[in-house]
């Protein structure tokens, strides 16, 4: 037990050092022309060092928020604004997906075209109908991955309520804090650490793993090279499936930030009482006179 506590506080202390060192030595992990720099970026992007760095930032923000309550409200509003902006922007991908489907069906069924050429600003590219058809999955993935945190802020996610409804205001906030701290954040952290290496296994070779030590990965740096995934389900189909791996990480990052925001909001609403419920919350509305339909769209 004592050894575990010593290890925890040591890693937390090193977290502050690692943050300072990374900020003052960006060339060691951002200069991707240097293969060792690239490998360091890959390793630390899914490492325990990154976890403790974020834990330290979270603890500092929490302490500042306890001292200056408006600071914590500012963090909540900033993170919710990010989730809303990303979600509202990504939602347009659904319209693009529908438009692309109409164009593909129309040109393929009526004009029997086998490919489509697009040349915006004179920069043209030509792909087969199969490529455009398979590529619609990317637009769907954008909506799913980037609108999850937005839906959470808007209260549009599905709840399975067994004990929550009859609880008092502060009882509900305690449940929300517990869920954010012990379910959302740990799950998002675990998913990030494995999804990070899942992405890089499809971008570089030799393949990297979450179990690899830094020393082993630096030895691999001598032979590392880019090997971006271009696999398709058909010979002329969509060939940028690595973008889906990037969307997985984007989804996890947004969920993690929203979990922190939700924890802070629940704490503040617990402390300030029922009159602070949904304080500063920016939710979409159907307009004046449509209150009865809110939450059904």
Radius of gyration: 23 Å
Structural class: mainly alpha
Helix content, binned percent: 55-70%
Question: How do the strands line up in the largest sheet?
Answer: 1-2
Summarize model confidence as the mean pLDDT. Answer: 89
- Largest sheet: number of strands, sense, barrel closure: 2 strands, antiparallel
- The assembly state of the depicted protein chains is single chain
Low-pLDDT residue intervals, each spanning 5 or more residues: none
State the distance separating the first and last CA atoms: 51 Å
Q: Helix segment count?
A: 11
Number of strands: 4
Tertiary shape: flat
> Strand percentage, roughly?
under 5%
Element-level helix/strand string? HHHHHHEEHHHEHEH
What would you say this structure looks like, in words?
The structure is a single chain. With 297 residues, the protein is mainly alpha-helical. It has helices at 2-24, 27-30, 35-44, 48-67, 69-90, 92-109, 129-146, 148-154, 169-200, 214-220, 242-272; strands at 115-118, 125-128, 204-205, 225-226. A hairpin with a 6-residue loop joins strand 1 and strand 2. The mean pLDDT is 89.
Topology:
Blueprint: H1 2-24, H2 27-30, H3 35-44, H4 48-67, H5 69-90, H6 92-109, E1 115-118, E2 125-128, H7 129-146, H8 148-154, H9 169-200, E3 204-205, H10 214-220, E4 225-226, H11 242-272
Helix pairs in contact: 1-4, 3-10, 4-5, 5-8, 5-11, 6-7, 7-11, 8-11, 9-11
């Amino acid at each position: 037990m004592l050894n575990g506590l010593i290890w925890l506080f040591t890693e937390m202390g090193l977290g502050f050092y690692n943050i300072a060192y990374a900020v003052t030595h960006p060339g060691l992990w951002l200069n991707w022309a240097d293969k060792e720099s690239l490998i360091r970026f890959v390793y630390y992007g899914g490492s325990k060092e990154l976890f403790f760095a974020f834990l330290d930032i979270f603890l500092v923000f929490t302490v500042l928020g306890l001292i200056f309550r408006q600071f914590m409200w500012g963090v909540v509003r900033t993170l919710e604004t990010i989730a809303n902006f990303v979600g509202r922007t990504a939602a347009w991908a659904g319209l693009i997906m529908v438009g692309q489907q109409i164009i593909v069906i129309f040109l393929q069924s009526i004009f029997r075209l086998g490919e489509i050429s697009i040349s915006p600003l004179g920069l043209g590219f030509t792909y087969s109908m199969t490529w455009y058809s398979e590529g619609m999955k990317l637009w769907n993935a954008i909506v799913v991955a980037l609108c999850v945190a937005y839906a959470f802020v808007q209260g549009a996610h599905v709840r399975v309520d067994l004990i929550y409804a009859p609880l008092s205001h502060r009882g509900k906030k305690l449940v929300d804090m517990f869920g954010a701290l012990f379910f959302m954040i740990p799950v998002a952290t675990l998913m990030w650490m494995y999804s990070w290496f899942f992405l890089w296994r499809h971008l570089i070779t030799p393949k990297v793993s979450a179990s690899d030590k830094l020393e082993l990965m630096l030895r691999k740096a001598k032979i590392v090279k880019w090997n971006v995934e271009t696999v398709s389900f058909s010979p002329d189909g969509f060939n940028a499936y690595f973008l889906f791996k990037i969307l997985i990480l984007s989804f996890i990052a947004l969920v993690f930030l929203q979990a922190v925001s939700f924890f802070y909001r629940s704490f503040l609403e617990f402390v300030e009482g029922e009159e602070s419920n949904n304080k500063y919350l920016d939710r979409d509305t159907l307009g004046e006179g449509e209150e009865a339909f809110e939450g059904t769209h």
